[in-house]
Amino acid sequence: MDIRSAVISIGQALGFDKVRISSVSTGKDTEFVHEWLRKGFAGEMAYLKKRAEERADPLKVLSGARNAICVALVYDRQGCVPGPVEDKSLGRIARYAGGEDYHTVMLERLEAFATAIQVKVRRSFTHKAYVDTGPVLERTLAARGGLGWIGKNTLLLDRELGSYFFIGVLFTDLEIDLDEPVADLCGSCTACLDACPTDAFPEPHVMDASRCLSYTTIEKRGIIPEHLRAPQGNWIFGCDICQEVCPWNNRKNRMLPLPGVKLREKLKPKEEFVLPSLRWILDLDEDNWREITAKTSIRRAKWRGLIRNALIAAGNSGDLTLFDSIMKHAEGVDPGLREHAEWAIGQLLQTRRAASDAKA
Q: Is residue 323 assigned to a domain?
């Protein structure tokens, strides 16, 4: 067995759903990051700019690297999290986020992958593993190696896996035959672009992260601009809309058996994070939040961020029974939460007036 075939077999045996080998050269597909940052599309994510040179040139991440072994791990194979629901008093959390933190799960398995490869080739080699944790354009590298193609919503798509999967990258200095890119199969479809509630795509394949709900509900600190609040709906951590409408995520061949069963069990959302009650979220104090979010990606938003997001969702819900839970934050000491709570109260009062006028 050649080394490429051996690497793919080992990766699948360790639970990754797909493994491909990618080039690590500099190219237009990596250098675009400079223009993207210049246009301000990164919002307040200053850390992206600090290491932009490494993002544009993979060889600056690991000098002497000859390839990047790219892996995919599906996290929502059976649709374990329901789609949109009528009850707007329930919050929505992106499908990837409610279980064990994917960074930990994937990085541990990538290190095990590197060890297993060393045993197979009978020598040590230089490597570095990344899962959304460093100055690496994972999607670009994965697309180069044919792990999928980059869709118009800027996510990686595979005709069998869809897009609900994590990407891991293992840089190595091994000599491994590279895989070829696959064709872009989005065609004339614009479902993802049309469905985005905040118009976060100035053009196909380009995202203005500062308008994306995944950015505003997770990465952004402080005040969410008022014009982005109503479009947030009942999302309180992340957003899956552009994936939910994608035809490649709604095909029968997504149900093919895959190797990553045990890894997916770790990633399965905790029951309390599957359509959580907004009242429950709003009533959490910081100690409760710290306890329930332990070892999950939801920690990224911080307590204030999650409460802020839930206040916006409550204002959008039209549920007048949430008034008391919102009022607690309107009367609190945190000025940011107070501002969002006052907005939410104003939205609910409008809902009550509209209901009253309809009865008159």
A: no
Which pLDDT tens digit goes with each residue over 319-354?
Answer: 999 999 999 999 999 999 999 999 999 999 998 887
Nearest to 272 by CA among 306, 249, 228, 321: 306
Residue 255: predicted pLDDT: 58
In whole angstroms, what is the distance from residue 192 CA to residue 116 CA? Answer: 39
Q: For residue 313, how far is the Cα from the chain centroid?
A: 19
- 340 within domain boundaries: no
Report the pLDDT averaged over residues 153-172.
Answer: 96
List CB contacts of 164: < 8 A, sequence separation 6 or more.
74, 75, 76, 77, 95, 96, 243, 249
Q: What is the DSSP letter of 16?
A: -
- In a domain, residue 252? The reply is yes
| 154, burial (CB in 10 Å: exposed 0-12, middle 13-18, buried 19+) | middle
- Whether 277 is covered by a domain: the verdict is no
Whether 232 has a pLDDT exceeding 80, the answer reads yes
Q: Any idea which residues carry the catalytic annotation?
A: 132
**3 state DSSP class of 8:** helix
Q: What total of structural domains would you count in the chain?
A: 1
